[in-house]
Amino acid sequence: MTIRYDKSSDSVYFILTDEVPFESEEIKKGVIVDYDKNEKITSIEILNFKENSTDLDIPVLGDFFLKKAS
Questions:
Q1: Contact 34, 18 (CB under 8 A)
Q2: Is residue 29 in some structural domain?
Q3: 70 pLDDT more than 50
Q4: Is residue 15 part of a domain?
Q5: pLDDT confidence of 25, banded at 50, 70, 90?
Q6: The pLDDT of residue 26 is above 70
Q7: What pLDDT was estimated at residue 55?
Q8: Tell me, what's the pLDDT at 68?
Q9: What are φ and ψ of residue 35, in 5° steps?
Q10: Can you give the pLDDT at residue 33?
Q11: Domain around 33
């Protein structure tokens, strides 16, 4: 897994696999999930991370566990 943070846009990007995203879905305002052709999660982008991280409740995505940022 790779995690990238863009300070200028306050966005964090979790890259879970090397698969090329096929489709994207905004599952919550500012939380975008990318899927491959087999509907498996490839990456997650969180916009306005510092603001949104306290409101996130995404305990499990695929085989990966995410915890609320502090």
A1: no
A2: yes
A3: no
A4: yes
A5: very high
A6: yes
A7: 56
A8: 35
A9: -120, 150
A10: 92
A11: 2-65
Q: Supply the pTM of this predicted model.
A: 0.70
Task: Count Cβ neighbours within 10 Å for each residue of 7-25 and write b for 16 or more, e otherwise.
Answer: eeeebbbbbbbebebeeee
**Residue 10 maps to a domain:** yes
User: Is 70 part of any domain?
Assistant: no
Q: What is the pLDDT of residues 33-47, one digit of tens each?
A: 999 999 899 999 989
Does residue 52 sit in helix, strand or coil? helix
Domains identified in the chain, total number = 1
The tokens for 36 are: 């491959």
| Residue type at position 30 | G
CB atoms within 10 A of CB 32: 17
Greatest C-alpha distance within the chain: 33
Residue 26, beta-bridge partner list? 32
CA dihedral 53, 57, 32, 7 (to 10 degrees): 10
